[in-house]
Write a structure and sequence with these properties.
The chain is of the alpha/beta class and 656 residues long. It contains 22 helices and 28 strands. Among the domains are: 273 residues, ANL, N-terminal domain (Rossmann fold, 3-Layer(aba) Sandwich), CATH 3.40.50.12780; 180 residues, ANL, C-terminal domain (GMP Synthetase, Chain A, domain 3, 2-Layer Sandwich).
Length: 656
């Protein structure tokens, strides 16, 4: 049974969908959470009661239509319920990244004019109390986990359960208030306000209506055949548009259950226990999982390691063809089945991927080799291309026609075109209403007839698949005219488990160069196996043998680039290993771990100049933020190394 009902045309808001789900599938599970090692489940009927009590409690505290409700914390059923509770009263939820520092939260809460906040625990309460004097609109804070808050006696603080009790008392005096409020909600109303990651400046508040989110969810459910029986684990930030479309939008429209992990540290374990049928992960998650797999295999016995790599190579050769239902030779099928018994199925079981029928990756381009690895194991991973301004979906890779180097075709209900300057534009039911309090940016981004500028450069291949090259503003040229696409190069570098982040430079230069961040776990494991002592990240990043390891990775990338006549000239000639990990707390990454390229270019200008000066060393002094929040300075003398360039395919042919 797919989502919706005969009255689905009238179910144009999440509060209305909530009541419909409680009516037609009231006993089916809607929310799960693991707490102290035990999974707790709420049915749709129970979720409706929880949301109703909270919504009426908010009303008794003075929350009204148009008010903003900040949501801060890890993925928790109570926080998801808070969103719909606010929407039921005509309010607007504003989820905030839970790992944001107080100043980042202050900008969002002040800009959005937030009056109420529902937070997870003491940590988030303390952050909000720190900025209340700078956020005059914030009046009330509601917390779910009371641990550590016993002696907090401020009048503006309320426990989640207490507010629900207020709501039940309010209902006794105001029967049918909730149902009447829900009935007033309509598709054109604002459903949520989500703030962009701020890669190029201050975050912008993106206003999405119920029509944007509900229609987009309904279209994607129909296109992919999702049902009320899906199982999904919600572990990505609630402030991210994808989590809202998957964990609320599609869940409420289709009626499937969303589970929340015990903590960010137990996601992989909880994934195995839930065994989701529907899964989303950005490339960095798939990369991290692959890194863990490869590290463990390097520690395995030699014969097991050789067998694994043998069957892995066979899977890469035929696995994707089998998954797509293409013809494969009998012996190849038999060998693949043997590999499935010995390696592929056990590996998917350990990762919690055994039941997955559909998995998406998006946010950044995924390395083709990483993509092929998962599909070769029989995992139906597909790339989609989207944005906050689209309510996620712009393109989806169609079943049976999956390609590692494209993002597929237009999703249902979406139109796409590529401008003469190469910028991708789209128009769809998901097109955002506006940027909050920013008419100028809204007009720059959205045309009068509804087309949206993505800022991405791309083109359609001969079969109508969209290829995204890079951010349009980041694509440049070397001095010899060679195309320079930094993100494309960075994604190829990050395929290697030893490389966590990479930032490449070359626009207006004679060659391309890179600043590399090590993956401490992967390189640390490699160092231990090679008896290489080190005292920490900075020490490890300065060692000659580690430089040799990374140089080999870059040379492999260069060899691959040499096969592409458009990119052969952008091979990486020089690199250095940064003395610290790039960090969102230091402003180098967004909260969704996207590189703030302009910030890094300014902060590490001396290092970048050294990469293009011919120098073999460069000193650097940089401020860092430690885990406990205090700041310090790291000084380092960094080495710069040359990398061998590969002859292009054209040059190789000429030599012959």
């Amino acid at each position: 049974m797919t989502g919706g009902s005969p009255n689905s045309g009238n179910l144009d808001t999440f509060p209305k969908l909530l009541l419909e789900n409680a009516r037609i599938r009231g006993d089916k599970p809607a929310s799960r959470e693991k707490d102290y090692g035990i999974w707790q489940t709420w049915s749709w009927a129970e979720v409706a009661d929880e949301i109703k009590a909270l919504s009426l409690g908010l009303a008794s505290l003075g929350f009204k239509a148009g008010d903003k409700l900040a949501i801060v914390g890890d993925n928790r059923p109570h926080l998801y319920w808070s969103m719909v509770a606010a929407q039921s009263l005509g309010g607007i939820p504003v989820p905030v990244y839970q790992d944001s520092v107080a100043d980042e939260m202050q900008f969002v809460l002040e800009h959005a004019e937030v009056r109420f906040a529902v937070v997870e625990n003491q940590e988030q309460v303390d952050k909000l109390m720190e900025i209340m004097d700078r956020t005059p609109s914030l009046e009330t804070i509601i917390y779910n986990n009371p641990r550590g808050l016993r002696n907090y006696s401020q009048g503006f603080l309320h426990q989640f359960k207490d507010v629900q009790d207020m709501g039940r008392e309010f209902e006794g005096k105001n029967p049918n208030f909730f149902e009447a409020a829900v009935d007033k909600t309509k598709g054109a109303d604002t459903a949520i306000m989500l703030y962009t990651s701020g890669t190029t400046g201050k975050p912008k508040g993106v206003i999405l209506s119920f029509d944007n989110t509900v229609i987009t969810a309904r279209n994607s459910i129909a296109q992919e055949g999702l049902t009320e029986n899906e199982e999904m684990l919600a572990y990505l930030p609630m402030a991210w548009v994808g989590d809202n479309i998957f964990s609320i939008g599609q869940s409420y429209v289709a009626g499937f259950c969303v589970s929340c992990p015990e903590s960010s540290d137990t996601v992989l374990e909880d994934l195995r226990e839930i065994g989701p049928t529907y899964f989303f992960a950005p490339p960095r998650i798939f990369e991290s999982i692959l890194t863990t797999v490869m590290i463990r295999m390097e520690d395995a016995a030699a014969i097991k390691r050789k067998m694994f790599h043998f069957f892995l190579e066979h899977a890469k050769r035929v696995g994707s063809h089998i998954l797509d239902g293409e013809d494969v030779g009998l012996m190849d099928r038999i060998l693949y089945k043997l590999g499935n018994v010995l390696f592929y199925a056990p590996l998917k079981n350990v990762l919690g991927f055994s039941r997955i029928q559909l998995a998406y990756t998006a946010g950044e381009a995924i390395g083709p080799d990483i993509f092929i690895f998962y599909r070769s194991l029989g995992l139906n991973v597909k790339q989609l291309y989207g944005s906050t301004e689209a309510a996620v979906f712009i393109t989806i890779q169609p079943n049976g026609d999956i390609r590692p180097d494209t993002v597929g075709r237009a999703a249902d209900g979406v139109e796409i075109k590529v401008n003469d300057d190469g910028e991708v534009m789209f128009r769809s039911p998901g097109v955002f209403v506006s940027y909050y309090k920013d008419d100028e940016e809204t007009k720059k981004t959205k045309t009068d007839d509804g087309w949206v500028h993505t800022g991405d450069a791309g083109f359609f291949d001969d079969d109508g698949h969209l290829k995204i090259i890079d951010r349009a503003k980041d694509v440049g040229k070397l001095n010899d005219g060679t195309l320079f696409a930094p993100k494309y190069l960075e994604n190829k570098l990050k395929f290697f488990p030893h490389i966590k982040e990479a930032v490449t430079f070359g626009d207006g230069k004679d060659y391309a160069a890179a600043i590399i961040n090590l993956d401490l776990e992967a390189v640390g494991n490699w160092a231990e196996r090679h008896n290489l002592a080190y005292s920490g990240y900075t020490d490890l990043a300065g060692q000659d043998k580690v430089y040799d390891l990374i140089r080999d990775c870059i040379e492999t990338v260069n060899n691959d680039l040499a096969q592409d006549p458009h990119l052969a000239g952008s091979q990486i000639k020089r690199f250095l290993l940064l003395h610290k990990e790039l960090d969102a707390d230091d402003g180098e990454l967004t909260r969704t771990r996207k590189i703030r390229r302009s910030f890094i270019t300014d902060k590490y200008a001396e290092l970048i100049n050294a990469l293009f000066s011919g120098a073999d060393r460069c000193t650097v002094e940089a401020e860092v933020t430690f885990e406990d929040g205090h700041k310090g300075t790291i000084n380092a003398d960094l080495k710069i190394q040359e990398v061998s360039l590969s002859a292009s395919s054209t040059q190789a042919e000429a030599a012959e």
